């Protein structure tokens, strides 16, 4: 071919997808026909045309449209993924513009998810991105089940924990407590802090989940309360005084919400007063946000590197063109450059990716009593629990219309609500109160009813 045709858009991808290799996945067949990781993604097996079909069918959710999320969306689109959705609750702020390159000055105040989706679609032909401007908890669990892969570009442990719990909740175990492949929801998680970052692959039931290795996130450094109360020496001390001590004194019972601008402003004003009292300079609103939310400056290049690693892992999961990272990559660009991959192991007793919390009940226990029990159970510690059973709402705390619709179930025996099946899985979402911290959470609960005879094995899935 002597034609000077422009290079194919998929030129670089083809190097990964059209050639054999020693590191390819067990089912990878190089060529235009690429075996899609169908075990994970579709039930049954199937071949798909890579450039035409494969990425058409792979549905990827990007969680977060901030520094990492913007990069992820752009990288995934450029890697040929065509069906992307993005969820983010934030609006664009002026301070985002130095690194969140999809946003312009005129976008300030608009939802990040919407602008990010629009900009990438304008620049990359053929990609469709659906934005969701809401909190991750606002979507019901089934929303997340719709995606083949979930890519996380988040800056908070709580949000990661939540999505991890949701993805792990889809995981089912067979009667020998082996995870079922077709119920695994792979996640790729990126994170950055200044010049440091990580990229990891989580395949629930195979790799450790986020919760298995929660110890990787050391507890945040806290100042001694006596320092805050008596001898503040810097601006951060004044801010933490307002945040940790003064707030509770004044707002008895009302939890501080770092995402509520009124709350943040109140803490800032109090910190300024405190700083004036002790002659301490340097309290600003952005420092207040930084200290209270533990924000560390974000670096565009770190986001770009971590996002590239995450996108490559997503492509590997979708195509099987190479083994995935096993399973945790750290990047450190503080002095020179250092990267390393560590293979962490699963916590076999993990409450989130394991088979679930086993709860034994009498057949007479009502749904209301069950919800009360979840508050007391040290393995759950959940208040205001909403309960779903195979996607059916048994009781919902919110919105009011659903609460009203499901309220009458509260007085019914759970056994009846679970179709008199002696052993099955429920999902509870609510507020988890652990170590004096409240966070949104989800727990998989394996309920076994006592005193039901004649049922040897209630593994209902059956089949080949
Ligand atoms: Zn786990």
Percent of residues in helices: 25-40%
What is the global morphology?
Answer: globular
CATH architecture of the largest domain: 3-Layer(aba) Sandwich
Number of domains: 3
* Biggest sheet layout: 8 strands, mixed
Strand content: 15-25%
Count of individual beta strands: 15
Looking at this protein, list some descriptive labels:
464 residues; 3 domains; NEDD8 activating enzyme activity; ATP binding; nucleotide-binding; globular; five-stranded mixed sheet; Rossmann fold; Structural Genomics Hypothetical 15.5 Kd Protein In mrcA-pckA Intergenic Region, Chain A; 15 helices; alpha/beta; eight-stranded mixed sheet
3D structure, described in words:
It is a single chain. By secondary structure, the protein is an alpha/beta fold. The chain folds into 3 domains: 52-218 and 298-342, Rossmann fold; 225-292, Ubiquitin activating enzymes (Uba3). Chain: B, domain 2 (Arc Repressor Mutant, subunit A, Orthogonal Bundle); 357-449, Ubiquitin-like 2 activating enzyme e1b. Chain:  B, domain 3 (Structural Genomics Hypothetical 15.5 Kd Protein In mrcA-pckA Intergenic Region, Chain A, Roll). The protein is 32% helix and 20% strand. It has 15 helices and 15 strands. The strands form 3 sheets. Strands 5-4-3-6-7-8-9-10 form an 8-stranded mixed sheet, with helices on both faces. Strands 11-15-14-12-13 form a 5-stranded mixed sheet, with helices on both faces. A two-stranded antiparallel ribbon has the order 1-2. Strand 3 (59-63), helix 4 and strand 4 form a beta-alpha-beta unit. Helix 4 (67-78) crosses helix 12 (300-319), helix 9 (235-250) packs across helix 10 (261-278) and helix 10 crosses helix 11. The longest helix is centred in the last third of the chain and has 20 residues, at 300-319. It is globular, with a radius of gyration of 24 Å. The N and C termini lie far apart (50 Å). The relative contact order is 0.11. Mean pLDDT is 86; it is low at 34-52 and 454-464. The structure holds zinc ion (ZN). Residues 359-450 form the E2 binding domain. Pathway: Protein modification; protein neddylation. The active site is at residue 226. Keywords: ATP-binding, Ligase, Nucleotide-binding, Ubl conjugation pathway. This is NEDD8-activating enzyme E1 catalytic subunit.
